[in-house]
Amino acid sequence: MEISPEDANLVFVGGVNIWRSGNTGTIWALSAHGYGFGGAPWVHPDIHFLKYHPTRSGVLYACNDGGIAVSTNDGDTWRDISKGLRIQQYYSLSTTDLQVNLTLA
Fold first, then answer.
1. By three-state DSSP, how is residue 47 classified?
2. For 11-35, how does the pLDDT look when each residue is reduced to its tens digit (9 = 90+)?
3. Would you give the DSSP letter of residue 73?
4. DSSP of the chain
C-alpha cells in the first residue's frame, strides 16, 4: 500500500493488480492489471511493494516478481523498467534424507 505524499486522498494497493483510490479508499479503480484486461495497462502481476519517488512528483514504483514498473503520472500509465535485471523465482524445492556417496573426478 502506498499513499501519495502530495495528496493524502490518493491511495494505491498492490496484489495481483494495482488498485487506485482518489478518495481514501471509498471507491477503487484498476490502475494496472496483471493479465492485461479491464482497460488498464499491463504490469507484471504479484505486486510486493509500491513506493513514491522521494523528490519527483507523481512518480510511483511497483516492485513485483518480474521486476519494477514505474508510473510518472500517479498511476495513469505504467512502464516496465526491468530490462537487464536477472530475475528468477523458485516455486518449489525438494530434499531427501537419502545419503549418497559421490566421488568427483
1. strand
2. 999 999 999 999 999 999 999 998 8
3. S
4. -EE-SS-TT-EEEESSSEEEESSTTSS-EEEEBTTS-TTS-B--S-EEEEEE-SSSTT-EEEEETTEEEEESSTTSS-EE--TT------S--------------
Distance of CA 79 to the CA centre of its chain: 11
Q: Which residues contact 65 (CB under 8 A, 6 or more apart)?
A: 44, 45, 46, 48, 87, 89
Q: Name the 3-class secondary structure at 63.
A: strand
Residue 33 C-alpha cell reads as 492489471
- Cell for 86? 536477472
Please, are residues 73 and 58 in contact by the beta-carbon 8 Å criterion? yes
The three-state secondary structure class of 66 is coil
* DSSP-assigned beta bridge partners for residue 80: 69
C-alpha cell at 70: 514505474
Contact between 28 and 22 under an 8 Å Cβ cutoff? The reply is: no
The per-residue pLDDT for 105 is 61
